[in-house]
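name: query_chain
kind: protein
chains: 1
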Amino acid sequence: MTVTRSHDEAAIKSVLADLYQAWEAGDADAFVVNYRDDATAILPGSYRRSKEDVREQMAAGFASFLKGSTNIDKLDSIRFLGDSAAVVVSETALRFPGETEVPADRVVHATWVLEKRDDDWLIVAYHNSPVAVAS
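structure:
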């Protein structure tokens, strides 16, 4: 018998939707509202070791090279690990102002690890890696 977790899936999707809405608003505080204090984020060339580190880096980015950018996110899967943990895989692409298409070299596969605490889902870890571009 398959157990559905539609309520938890909807809550996780909402966490990610809120995060990308904050990105579009350039709001670093709102961007990290669903991060655990000890969350980590690993991106090519960057290791962010806490919620505050993520917030600081995003604030700096939103004030400079990320200003006006948006993310296109395609959810691939949500896999639950027991009652209080989930791994989410998505494909994400960064689009800068004025762009209608995202160059292939800016598309990444992302892995999100979330933990459920007191009925709220929080981001524990994030990692992304560029999608291999066929030559």
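note: The chain has three helices and six strands.
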